[in-house]
Amino acid sequence: MDQEFHTSQNHFKKIIQQQLERIETLKNAPLPTDYNKLDKIKVGIIGGDGIGPTITNVSQNILKSLLEQHKTKQIDLIPIPGLTIENRALAKQAIPNEILYEIKKCDVTLKGPTHTPEKGDGWPNIESANVSMRKKLDLFANVRPVRIPQENIDWTFFRENTEDLYAVGSQGINVTDDLAIDFRVITTQGSKRIIQAGFNHARKTGKTKVTIVTKANIVKTTDGKFLEIAQEIAQDFPEITLDSWYIDIMTAKLLDLKRRSQFEVMILPNLYGDILTDEAAEIQGGVGTAGSANIGNKYAMFEAIHGSAPRMVTEKRAQYADPSSVLRASAMLLEHIGFPLIGTQLNQALDICGNYEKKISITGREDGATSEQFGDYVLSTINDKNLNDRWLEYLSLIHISEPTRRTPISYAVFCLK
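Request: output the structure for the sequence above.
Response:
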């Protein structure tokens, strides 16, 4: 018993030391990047695993075409190969050092899905590449918009990205054969910046309600801290109503047809945000319909929110994968680096091609379009001089007026000002 206690004590001490050092780093975080002041912006393209290279290649081609038409500044699209489960397992690192070095040379990245090992799948116990990238680049804000115009749903989720159970998810300990313990991290600095970002976004976009989602009635210390900080920050935003819900009932309320359109901006710790944003994406039409932004002061990463679909690769169907999620992420990337008009046009084209006209459809099999064919359809729609008229026609068919639809807001406002 004494040996187990001593080993566990040393393990916990190491984690505490790491997190205290991290807090000091947060106190000295760099100022936000102003992309308008950069002469050149470097965009890294990370294919990842499974269907990732297929769908990111479609996005890269569309980004290249759109940016060539708007040469207001130099944008370099830089492929970063090698962030695969095979290379990560070989290096025994979530992100091999040489790949992280290339990522840090870029201002923003567009990333395909990467495989996260789980117990029993044959891969070593290495951390999720996503979790590692968020921590190493300090991408503290995971921002996911969800829009369903016909139901008047306009949600924006601010999920804290670098703390909670995920922060030390690979550092749990089996104290004995009968006792396993994981650790949860919530800090004042980490909570303040994500909550401040959510409130700033609400103010800038004219929203009147911010909802904090926790389980503070049960998880009193960490969730209690998150909620208390939200209540303090809310005092600086008197025009915005602070709403507080517990995660369990909140998952139900997103399914409540009478209630769900009342939510606007939702701010959550990491784990709850992961769960709720996937539920929201499924309500919107599936995780393949939504993109995700991971934003920090210096770097930003935009990604598809679905997995790497290894079965599609095994069955030789990768070429039929749906690129919609990573294309949505590409639109968010364009808005973030200062091209809101092009980002809006890409979103409009995706609405038309995926929800309205559907001249071709993605089925994931040979009876549907390939990723490349769908990408060509999207690009030709963007280049149509009647794009906005076609999009407005779509809105009229679902009986919604344009002002309630998504507006071209730069995602740079989400994290920083």
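The chain is about 45% helix and 15% strand.
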